[in-house]
Amino acid sequence: MRKEEIDSLIKLLDDPDHIIFDHVQTKLLSLGELAIEPLEEAWEQSFDALQQQRIEDIVHIIQFRQNLQSLDLWALSGSFDLLEGLIIIHKYQYPDCDEQKIINQVEAIKREVWLQMHYSMTPVEKVRLFNNVFYNTEGFSGNIRNYNDPQNSYIGQVLDTRKGNPVLLSCIYSIVAQKLDMPIYGVNLPKHFILAYTDNYQTNYDENEILFYINAFNRGQVLGKHDVLSFLQQLKLPRKPEYYQPCSNLQIIERVLTNLLAYYTENSSPKAIEVQKMRDIVSGHLNK
User: pLDDT in tens for each of the 288 residues of the chain?
Assistant: First the structure.
């Protein structure tokens, strides 16, 4: 479809006849991403509130469909890149975000640690150095004041504000650490989220291969296994291996979406329905 034809369709978006609107909307949605730029141009030039609202709704539907497709493809392709998965979630809330900026911010943190790191260091020494850069130099901290704020689950916002919840702080910590050949992975601990420093890069871990744990939300505090088991005991939970062993990237993304869903549901936000669809995609892949 030529641009002139798309523009002609967009001009009909202010038509009060719902049959005409439904037809126009269906045509524009079928164009997908190709319709976004003309729609945004028309929004800027429009003085009609109804037309502007309809344009916003159509653009959002197109972008959300792309978001679902990206998430499904990421999971289908093995979900190897945790950062990519987090960017997909970030783009749900901020579809026009600069992906490269997020990647560059992560690389900048890695570079800062790398400049000071000696590979002869022990794992504990590496973590101490990492913590000094991550929390003191870079200024990351747990968002205690607004713990449940959904912004704590969007990686671009956490990188900008340097504040996040346990899951996102752990994600950024582990992504940077792995870029530095530090085998640090997320642990899907109930009511919390921590990291494990492992002895290798295997996907199936023996619990004896975990050297120690790290609490990214508490300035990188180093924990022993007894600390984690004591936490489970306080919650009156069984000692299931999945509670204290490294989890997959899919499980991490599911946890991020679960946190968002809880917030949006509690606040009766229409976003809850969309986040539920995103989580269903991830959960579907986990259950295969």
Answer: 788 888 899 999 988 899 999 999 999 999 999 999 999 999 999 888 999 999 999 999 999 999 999 999 999 999 999 999 999 999 999 999 999 999 999 999 999 999 999 989 999 999 999 999 999 999 999 999 999 999 999 999 999 999 999 999 999 999 999 999 999 999 999 999 999 999 865 555 566 689 999 999 999 999 999 999 999 999 999 989 889 999 999 999 999 999 999 999 999 999 999 999 999 999 999 998
d(CA 89, CA 259): 12
- What is the Cα–Cα distance from 162 to 148, expressed in whole angstroms? 15
DSSP code, position 133: I
**How far is 2 from 7, CA to CA, in rounded Å?**
9
Ramachandran region, residue 268 (left: φ > 0; alpha: ψ -120 to 50; beta: rest): left
Q: What predicted TM-score, i.e. pTM, was given to this entire model?
A: 0.92
Do the Cβ atoms of 280 and 258 come closer than 8 Å?
no
Q: What residues contact residue 262 under an 8 Å CB cut-off, 6+ apart? A: none
Amino acid at 276: Q
- The rounded distance, in Å, linking the Cα atoms of 223 and 214 is 6
Residue 27: other Cβ atoms inside 10 A: 15
Going from the C-alpha of 59 to that of each of 1, 27, 46, 102, 263, the distances in angstroms are 17, 13, 15, 23, 24
* Residue 260: strand, helix, or coil: helix
Quick one: tokens of 185?
A: 């992975």
According to DSSP, residue 282 is labeled: H
